[in-house]
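Q: Structure for this?
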Amino acid sequence: MKPESEEQLLFAFFNEIGIIAQLGRAQFERVLPHGLKISQFSVLNHFVRLERDSTPARLARNFQVTKGAMTNTLGRLHALGFVDISPDPRDGRGKRVRITCAGRAAHAACVQSITPGLTELASTFAPEQFRAALPLLQSLRAYLDGARDRFDD
Amino acid sequence: MKPESEEQLLFAFFNEIGIIAQLGRAQFERVLPHGLKISQFSVLNHFVRLERDSTPARLARNFQVTKGAMTNTLGRLHALGFVDISPDPRDGRGKRVRITCAGRAAHAACVQSITPGLTELASTFAPEQFRAALPLLQSLRAYLDGARDRFDD
DNA sequence: ACTATATAGTTCGACGTTGAACGAACGAGA
DNA sequence: TCTCGTTCGTTCAACGTCGAACTATATAGT
């Protein structure tokens, strides 16, 4: 079942991308604690990887999501006590967002819960395959993103 | 090698997959005529590629969406006059779905509208890259799909 | 100082999807 | 024939996201 034309190849490629995104998301969220969604875990993960606070607008840009979606995500994380939100003392419009201790604990629990699936994945597929495919995905993402400035993250 | 970087590798991989799916979907739907969504175009595309009618349940399995989602998709396509839905004479529960002439025309218009973006993509990235990455994506999809039977499509 | 433009964050309605519940109809077995 | 389990298609609430409108604040140009 090899695609004949380039158009079919590209269509098949994006088709797989879309379905993998959907299935992967569902599988992730099935095991995440606290009913967390990927978008929410991603924000926690962001804070744990880069040890610094951020702002809703900057996070929205980081995750390529509208500001409205980030308002929603941060609101839920805040309701769970996983992030701390305070007005920016230097910018009357802005807010500062930072992770809490409970947020770190939740992130650790998330990592615990997704590790089995990830290791099974890594034992089923040679990780080199993922590593080999990653550059294409990254440049494709950058291309689709319209060559937008992306110096933060 | 190190388990920690493997985890990060997999996470980065799925992260790119998710964002590409989101950006690609948005880019597709921005140019599709009739306000069609990818899910709807996919159904039209399915009918044009395979010259035969189908049923809502079978389509839902083909595209790995719930039956409820397919009810919605087919309802919109039917409202636009792009598919024809009739009760299955041999199965009192089922329905037969088939594409209409207007549906074929709409599909052709869709192809016309997305071709420029696809050719630009094919000129920016070597198609061999996509071809090389496709097997991993396909087997990954099959893996995430839980080794479900998939003999139709 | 004034104006114009840009940015921060929120809110709202619309949309597609999920997951679950449901009634209807099929199919196999006793 | 009657039952049991399965499948078909629909409906519904919940959820996340988008896009657009909106207020408030910042910033640059004149």
